[in-house]
Write a structure and sequence with these properties.
It is a single chain. The chain has a domain of 93 residues: Immunoglobulin-like. The protein is built from one helix and eight strands. The radius of gyration is 23 Å and the shape is globular. Helices cover 4% and strands 40% of the residues. By secondary structure, the chain is mainly beta. The longest helix is centred in the last third of the chain and has 5 residues.
């Protein structure tokens, strides 16, 4: 009987995941799905109403909107995420408008994704029956 045992060593260097996240949303302009180019302003708050702004706001200019759908990348920096619960305020105006931002309501709660909950410091555990990940013991 010939037993072949191969050892593969991989060295993986993890990069920090950063603090940016993708926001996808939909909004209406005068009751119909928005179309065109809009400036969008985002800010974090510590409550869904009557809360305090957490960190600086962000403005994404000239965002293309089709059928009311938006997709933007937001990065408030790591310090903004020290609060337990955060709410996203969104303001919108037609790109180049001289009017101020119109606030969209209600504020949107930010909820974590599974990776963010476990974080990059969590290491996967190998169940006791699998002492060597390359050998299955049954």
């Amino acid at each position: 009987m010939v037993v072949l045992h191969a050892v593969c060593v991989l060295q993986v260097h993890a990069s920090p995941i950063g603090t940016a996240f993708t926001y996808q949303g939909r909004f209406l302009d005068s009751g119909t799905p928005a179309n065109g180019t809009y400036d969008l302003h985002f800010a974090l708050f510590d409550a869904g109403w009557s809360g305090n702004q957490v960190g600086p706001g962000l403005t994404n200019s000239a965002v293309a909107v089709a059928n009311g759908l938006i997709l933007v990348s937001l990065d408030f920096g790591g310090a903004a995420y020290s609060s337990n619960t955060l709410w996203l305020a969104i303001g919108v105006w037609t790109n180049g408008s001289l009017n101020g931002f119109t606030s969209l309501t209600p504020l949107q709660p930010l909820t974590p994704v599974p990776f963010a909950i476990s974080g990059p410091s969590r290491k996967p555990e190998i169940p006791p029956r699998y002492t060597d990940p390359s050998v299955f013991q049954d």
